[in-house]
Amino acid sequence: MAEIRSCPRCGVPDYITSEHLWLNNGVIVQKRDERARLAFIDCENLDPLFSNLEDIIGMPIERIIINASRRGTSIYYNRIMPQDAKEMLNMGELDPIPVMNTAFEMIRTTGYGSGEIIELNDEWRSSDFVLTMSFIEPCSVPIVCGVVGAGVQVILGLESSITYRELSPRLYELAVYKGENPPELSERLRWSEYRHSDGNTELERCPGCGGPLALSDFKWDMDRGVIESQSTGRHMALLSPQMIDAIFDDLEYELGEAVPKAIVEAQKRFVMTGFYSVDEVSDVASFREMLAIRGLGELRDMDISRKKLHVKLDRAALHPLVVGLVQGYYELATGIESAAEWEISDEGDLEVNITPV
User: Fold this and answer.
1) What is the pTM of this model?
2) Is 257-356 a domain of CATH 3.30.1380.20?
3) Taking burial as the number of CB atoms within 10 A of a residue's CB, which of 15, 144, 174, 177 is the most buried?
């Protein structure tokens, strides 16, 4: 496992601050391609969120999540991989294992967990079986399966199907086989590109690396591929909102217009378990910084009382998750059952109103 260099002042890996930009408007982007947005989010709620969705909807959704994650991540890999490397891989002139290991190093740094190839089948070009790998502490099991499938698709040029089994708590073995994915899935993929507009949220910067100083509140454990909040112990990850949006889009396409409300309800249920603290929204300035560090948008307005909670978030990302988060905060703070209404502008600004039922 390669050593990952970090800033001596704040402890954040060089890859994070050299390849990503925290802008002045609550947005995180890739430095090499500023059209690609990211979000630094709590990921321990993702699999419970998906489980809550299954309970609400009444049917399994794991295959939908894996396929959407694979397609969304494939776009990212295709953008960052040099064309000559793709051609050399396709012609068999480049060993794919170091390339795949580099991809796994990258996702380890961004909090997806730690993956390692156990076996790459020497006959993968002609055999159905491609590879097996181990994965510890994945940020989300189906999302990681999709990420691995995207690596196989872009690096090996193969469409794939993936199975997994849990060997021990938080340790999984993934098996990758050749497979076919319906072409209509790619045809309906929505991939919105970020267009910059200035804001007024300036984050304090680390004098060593220039990244947000607030990132020093998190611990990067690279042996495990885990980013943890030192104050709450939460597992964090730097994920693509477009990938998560692709999952939500597929769920809505397959299951109907009730899905966004189900996502909000599932997120609210998770917030109500006590994983979050109402102290995080008691102060407007702190809540604005928390949202900006996570790349979820720029808080323009917040008004909270027992009678309502109103939030306006410019350039918002992951809209239904944010709505569920806000509604959960309201119910935790007041103990009152509520209803949520929200509007999304053409520019992606989000306005949320939470009121007692």
Assistant:
1) 0.90
2) yes
3) 144
